[in-house]
Every structure is written in structure tokens, then in C-alpha cells.
Amino acid sequence: MFEVSEPDGRPSCLVHRHMHLNSLEFMGKTASKRLNKTLLKLALQYPLTALDFLHTEADIVHTDLKSDIVFSVADKYALDDFCWDEICDLTPRKIIDKTRIVYTSRAPRDPADSNWGPPVLCGFGEARIGKLHNVTNIGEAQPHICRAPEVSFMISCDSEVDIWIIWDHLESDHLFNIVDRNGSFCRYTYMVKIVAFLGSPPPEFVIRSESLHEKDKTKKGP
């Protein structure tokens, strides 16, 4: 981990070892475009161990799990081939200004004999430090399509919101259709779908939500 100097400050950068495909790209290589139960168990073993450490030891909520599970490189020759390809055919790039250059991504070849390395949990740009997070702190964390109910309805939440996304790695469709008739995200359509499947939320859930419950503290229901 290191810091870089930019006109707007000194952001912190977390650097991993060389990585390969993320879980979404890996699923695209399967016939069903999803992970079967056996592959899912193998793929989640390492990230769930990492999440357990984040939650119990570091007091960090990832908040943005989705496809940020990246397979490491076990076939080291794939990196040699990647470097040689870059030497022979430099990837296109665009200079934005004195501090920024945008590079075209080049995917390394698949590992020999399907020798994929263990998956690694990445993407900590939206991580929150602390066990419990209020509405102001958690903000608009998580993509709409896989957002935990606590986040959608502005309720203080903890590390449990990180588990909401595992469904999308197993099934061929999202758990709930959360768009309205205009094709836009609607948190109330989202709640209707959840209630239809799981039943009404507990009263304490409704009371804790700033968007579902009036701010009058004397009111005991929605």
C-alpha cells in the first residue's frame, strides 16, 4: 500500500499481485454463464475467509462484493506471455493530462491445463471502516441490482450486507427484479418483491428506516 501525489491530494493505493479474470468474466467462460454449486463453493472459500477477517478482526465492511472476486495467476508462464505480447504489440493509450493516462486493457491468456489460481477479494474502494454504519456513512454503497435492503432503505447496517450478493454468482438471473415500469431503479418496487417472497419486514426494520417511516418519533408504525 502506498500514496501517490495528485493535484487534489494524496490518495492511498492498494496493490495486489498479478491477477487474472474476475468472477463475472470467469462465469462467462462456462456453458451456463454461472458457477455450479461445486465451483461456487471453491470460488467462495477464499473470499469468505477474507470477509470473515475483515468483519471480525479489521472491523471493515466491503459493501461492493459483486464481481470483485479475482482469480490469481498460478500459471506463471502466462505472465511471461503477457509481457511479451505487450512488448511486441503495445496496447493503445490516451494521455488525458499531465497526471493521467488511460490504457486499453489486455487480457492474459487462459492458464495451461486450466490451472487457475485461488480467488482473491479485491475492490476496496467502497469499503467502510467500523462495525456499524449509519445512513450518512454508508451512502449509496452497493450496485442497485444487488443492494441489501438496509442500504436501499437507509438503515444503519453492519457486515451482514456483504452476503447479499452471493446469489448472483450461482443463478442465471438476479434475485429480484427491482426496476419500475419505466426501467428505472425503484426501492419500493424492490421492497414489494422482497415482501412477496419473504413476507412483511419486522416492525423494527420499518421503524429504523428513514424512507419507510415518518420522522415523527411518536409514530410507532409506517
Low-confidence stretches: 215-222
- Can you list the strand order of the major beta sheet? 3-5-8
Strand content bin: 5-15%
Radius of gyration: 21 Å
**Strands, total number:** 9
Overall CATH architecture: Orthogonal Bundle
Helix/strand-derived class?
A: alpha+beta
The CATH topology is given as Transferase(Phosphotransferase), domain 1
InterPro entries: Kinase-like_dom_sf
Organism: Ajellomyces capsulatus
Keywords: Kinase, Transferase
Protein name: Protein kinase
What does this structure look like?
The protein has helices spanning 23-27, 37-58, 76-88, 135-138, 149-152, 167-170, 187-198, 203-208, and strands at residues 2-3, 12-13, 19-22, 60-61, 69-73, 93-95, 101-103, 116-121, 128-129. It has 222 residues and is an alpha+beta fold. Strand 6 and strand 7 (101-103) form a beta hairpin. It is globular and about 60 Å long.
